[in-house]
Amino acid sequence: MSEAQGSVPALTVEGVSKLYRRATPGDQFRTLKSALLERTLTRGLDPDRAIHALDGVSFTVARGEAFGVIGGNGCGKSTLLKVVAGILKPSSGRVVADGRVAALIELGAGFHPEITGRENVFINGAVLGLSRRELERKYDDIVAFSGLGDFIEEPVKNYSSGMYVRLGFAVAVHTDPDILLVDEVLAVGDEAFAHRCLRRIEELLADGRTLLFVSHSLDLVEDLCDRVLWLDGGRPRLVGEPRRVTDAYRQAVAEEEGRSHQRAKDEAAEVRAGETDEEVLRWGSRRAEIVRARLLAGTGEAAEERYNLTSGEPVTFEIEVEATEPLEDFVFGVAVSTPRGGEVWGTNTDLAGLEPQRLEGSGRVRLVCPSLRLGPGEYLVDVAVHAEDGTPYDYRRKMFAFSVIARDRGVGIYFPEHRWEVAGGVEWAPAEAE
């Protein structure tokens, strides 16, 4: 989903910065008298001595889009969500949210520990903009979603952290928000509740609502989000397609831990330099480099290079690779998609249970499909070689395209082998031979 989708973005963040005062010697000894003499309880905020929690962050989020934010601890993710939620005021820049915003940012934010869960539902719901009548109508659904049962009548101070999250999320998603802000707090919930939350988020997205999602789970971000922002030291490092951004982030983490080659650092700098391009089709450290990829009609050595196929033909995806150094950690992958970005099929050697032993110098890898039963249409192929933890050596998007025709008629992207059978009083004339 692109930024241009929709006439008015659901969320606009323009040049947002957030500065905090850096503590200096003597600050703790300031007295009320000295503050009155200086006519202020705080010293002026000196930008040169301030901590930039956020520094010039800009992006837009379209209606119905899931927008992810990733980065290391202290990079400004939670601060960004608090600014968007209105909990914090930006030092500069502005945030424009078109619609009701519901935030699940901190455990028990807005809950009073001394009163019951029931009472907190009505207080928190009112803060989020629901009337008493709306809350009474939705109360049973909120309690059922939270799974708290009789604990709803207990004081919130007796709740575990997981129970806090369950109640907070249940209230937030039942306010019918136009924009839902979710921080890493879902990580403390149990597996069943996490799945319930994700299903609810997907329902909201399908209904045209918008999500701003912060998480350290890169796999979850890739699955859930349409675009991703990588924050680094409060500044935008990269924004774009989830896989591209998470791969770049993984690569940077590997470099910081001293596990990547110098060429990985060079490539990371190259990616950063090109992050304003509309589309980047290749990235990775190039410790192993894909020098060529082809589509072959048929199998074995008799297979011929061809990019127009008939559905059900045997095909071979062939990858030629050059390793710049001996590697014992490598995975080869192939993914097929439609021109509009729909995922058709993908696999890799790790999913197939192949254990890497050694990759050195030049090599060739083939993925053989005895019968590629795709529907008629155009398809694009991504090929990749990466480490087992996902760190890319060479990821190449849209490396080649191919087209498929089908003798049978049908709708969709998958054409399984099939036949029609009938019994009783059903008859039809045999199909005419073509």
What keywords describe this structure?
434 residues; six-stranded mixed sheet; Coagulation Factor XIII, Chain A, domain 1; globular; disordered N terminus; 19 strands; alpha/beta
CATH architecture of the largest domain, by name, is 3-Layer(aba) Sandwich
CATH superfamily of the largest domain: P-loop containing nucleotide triphosphate hydrolases
Number of domains: 2
Helix content: 10-25%
What is the alpha-carbon Rg in Å? 27 Å
What is the topology, as strand order, of the major beta sheet? 5-6-7-3-8-9
Catalogue the unreliable spans.
1-6, 259-266
Task: Give a written overview of the molecule.
- With 434 residues, the protein is of the alpha/beta class.
- It has two domains: 11-232, Rossmann fold, CATH 3.40.50; 288-405, Distorted Sandwich (Coagulation Factor XIII, Chain A, domain 1).
- 24% of the residues lie in helices and 32% in strands.
- The protein has helices spanning 32-37, 77-85, 117-127, 132-146, 161-173, 191-206, 218-224, 242-256, 262-273, and strands at 11-21, 50-61, 66-70, 92-97, 101-104, 179-182, 210-214, 227-232, 235-240, 282-283, 288-297, 304-305, 308-310, 315-327, 331-337, 343-348, 359-369, 377-386, 392-405.
- The longest helix has 16 residues, at 191-206.
- The protein is globular and about 75 Å long.
- The two termini are 42 Å apart.
